[in-house]
């Protein structure tokens, strides 16, 4: 069965507003998982619905560790989003991925700690596959849109999700390169994990702002350097979104991610925690009934 696209956008550092939408409304959506980062701006472009949330909230009040990733994803799901585009500022761990370039992230190495990693828990256990955390169809559409709107795009890249909020030491930065990391940021996890649990195809487009701290001859990254690159990146991210909406196939064919929970919940029906089942109405209502 095909359906209409509804593109959700999580705007990262420097991207606090989405694109101009027809019939634009700002809505507060509450979640049983707590406070989301802020309201959702929703509307349509050429008949396609788009819903935008600023990941760090108004005025960038939320740090990477205090973003309520579960509430944000839950709210996107409640809004009826079908596919989720994450836009993030990233440091580059490779010479060829230069500041101002875009990287279509396709893998993650999770170095975060102490963040809530799952919607599921005692009383309702689920194990979804995360081998390929990014939806290849959505990633290709996003990368194509970024290229068509004039950005240099690297298709594919491994994102090191670090805890922060401090940037990496030089030794860490060099170690991540040795691990095969291509880019680094602080928010991709647990966001990508939770999107998969919510059966939301997810694609992250990273906007390179700096070379992190692995280049011996250079001073390490500072927030000031990042902010200088962010403004131009935000305009190009908005151009990418305009192009994405304009180039989406007319109808949305199903994605395998739409049914990621199909065989993932392993707690016996009679042992399920009713309170948790109720909280998961938006995330897992499809399979929990
Ligand atoms: C302002 S630099 C560090 C900050 O930027 C990135 O945020 P986001 O992924 O939301 O664009 C990075 O992950 C850090 O949170
Ligand atoms: N070098 C870096 N490390 C972590 N997060 C970032 N976001 C942008 N640049 C970054």
Q: How is this structure best described in words?
A:
With 289 residues, the protein is of the alpha/beta class. 28% of the residues lie in helices and 21% in strands. Strands 1, 2, 3, 4, 5, 6, 7, 8, 9, 10 and 11 form an eleven-stranded mixed beta sheet that branches. The chain is globular and about 60 Å long. The protein starts with 5 loop residues before the first strand and ends with a helix. The mean pLDDT is 96. The ligand CSC[C@H]1O[C@H](OP(=O)(O)O)[C@H](O)[C@@H]1O binds next to strand 5 and helix 5. Residues 12-13, 55-56, 64, 88-89, 185-187, 223, 226 line the site of the ligand CSC[C@H]1O[C@H](OP(=O)(O)O)[C@H](O)[C@@H]1O.
Topology:
Layout: E1 6-11, E2 22-27, E3 40-45, E4 48-54, H1 69-78, E5 83-92, E6 102-105, E7 107-110, H2 136-148, E8 153-155, E9 158-161, H3 170-178, E10 183-185, H4 188-197, E11 202-210, H5 223-247, H6 274-279, H7 281-288
Parallel strand pairs: 1-4, 1-5, 5-11, 6-8, 7-9, 9-10
Antiparallel strand pairs: 2-3, 3-4, 5-10, 6-11
